[in-house]
Amino acid sequence: MTDRAVARAPLAKAVEAAVAAGVDWVQIRERDLDGAALLALAEELAAAARAGAAARGGDVTLLINRRLDVALALPASGVHLGFDAAPPRAARTLLGPEAILGAATHSADEALAAAHLDLDYAQLAPIFAPRSKPAGRAPLGLHAVREASRASLPVLAQGGIDAANAAAVVAAGAAGVAVTGAILLADDPGRAAAALRSVLDG
Question: Is there a cis peptide before residue 75, judged by omega within 30 degrees of 0?
Fold first, then answer.
């Protein structure tokens, strides 16, 4: 997940390095930008992500946080919906059946309820105390991951996840992890992404 406010390296360079090292989804999350500015940044980051994917001979999935209009204009692979975004059904109608739709959830119960919506994943946070911003909620812990993962909807765990604890998160049932600080706060984003990829692949 991007956040240019915390990135130590230029964001596009960090994204390219991280994708080249194994990041397979990039969620562009820059909530302070209006539509035109967000689209311009998204175009820059999409080009960087694709260059990184080409360097490792793979693909990358690009998601836009909340903004369906920007996702359509880019175009992106899909949208990550928050509490103040369009309902999943409306997003699906606009983006089409192939779009990837996910939603932010902040408890196991919310993640379980999301399984009844037209979504492809639920993002559950915060599992641990975030690295990239002050904690706004108490950490949910691995128990919440286990509970949320009982449903058929894949769960992406977010919040304080890095190479040291990612294996435990996946062992608890998460289909994947979403990170910001673990990569963007690192002196070498590519090396940090490679360490995380290695743990997840293991």
Answer: yes
Interatomic CA distance for residues 106 and 54, integer angstroms: 34
**Domain residues of the chain, as ranges?**
11-201
CB neighbour list of residue 184: distance below 8 Å, 6 or more residues apart: 2, 3, 6, 7, 8, 9, 11, 14, 132
- What is the pTM assigned to this prediction? 0.95
- Alpha carbon distance 198, 202 (integer Å): 6
pLDDT tens, position by position, 121-176? 999 999 999 987 776 789 999 999 999 999 999 999 999 999 999 999 999 999 99
Give the end-to-end CA distance of the chain in Å, rounded to a whole number: 22
Distance of CA 30 to the CA centre of its chain: 12
- Indicate whether 21 pLDDT > 90: yes
> Would you mind telling me the total number of residues written for the chain in this entry?
202
The mean predicted confidence, pLDDT, of the chain is: 96
Residue 126 φ then ψ, to 5°: -95, 135
Q: Cα dist. 112→42, 86, 145 in Å?
A: 31, 19, 11
Fold of 11-201: TIM Barrel (3.20.20)
| pLDDT over threshold 80, residue 83 | no
As a dihedral over the C-alpha atoms of residue 103, residue 167, residue 50, residue 57, rounded to 10 degrees, the angle is -140
